[in-house]
């Protein structure tokens, strides 16, 4: 949270509420481990998470390249359970926020809290079955970058704006996660056409006031992908309580649009053979 954020009373209050981000102390890990097949644990964990504040859930094997330098989580936790929490589009679309209109920043903050609670609930559920689990939630930097994990877990495709596009919520959601040694089964990445759509749509880069979003892909750490210049993005992001224009302007983010686009793109793919 930047110092400018801290100066907004409504924003600070979102994080100050008791238990706003879930229990401050996780439950102890049960002494006896329950025994079930990995596929069953994966199904039960998703069922629990979706019933406890999560809107999206996916699983991936934790990769060392997702963990920031100085941490070595993958040796202790082979799995990452990624959680998505949907935002209210109308509130989020008020971005960028200002000192007099903080609707967007407050909505993002509220959903980061909800994601933190969902991750804490799932961690305690896993711990109750005798396995270790640790939650990770925004907006503060932790030990894991969640976007590549979410892509691998099947929660969406990477958009031109550098964020995830989901086939239901577009980019109007926030991520949290749980790392665990509970035996699970990984989901697969999805391809519903968002990448191809972004190649023709320039809504986000046209709307970006900082000019931080590029139309062409770049090679980044051995992967060719859409690129955002954060040296341009972050100053404006910090100045406007989080910005978010690119995500709100994305056609996929409007309620009901993503599902229609998925059907249209699938039809186009079938027609082209």
Structure description:
With 273 residues, the chain is α+β, with helices and mostly antiparallel strands. The protein has one domain (1-273). The chain is 40% helix and 16% strand. It contains twelve helices and eight strands. It has helices spanning 3-6, 9-16, 38-50, 73-76, 89-92, 103-128, 146-152, 194-200, 203-207, 230-239, 245-249, 257-271, and strands at 56-61, 79-86, 133-137, 157-158, 164-165, 173-180, 213-220, 223-228. Helix 2 (9-16) runs parallel beside helix 6 (103-128). The longest helix is centred in the middle third of the chain and has 26 residues, at 103-128. The protein is globular.
The chain-level mean pLDDT equals 91
What is the general shape? globular
Number of strands: 8
Q: Note the gap between the termini.
A: 49 Å
Radius of gyration: 19 Å
The class by helix and strand makeup works out as alpha+beta
Q: Which regions have little confidence, pLDDT < 50, spanning 5+ residues?
A: none
Number of domains: 1
Could you give a short account of the major beta sheet?
Answer: 4 strands, antiparallel
How big a fraction of the residues is strand? Answer: 15-25%
Task: Give the SSE string.
Answer: HHHEHEHHEHEEEHHEEHHH
Provide the spatial order of strands within the biggest beta sheet.
1-2-6-3
How many helical elements?
12
Helix content: 25-40%
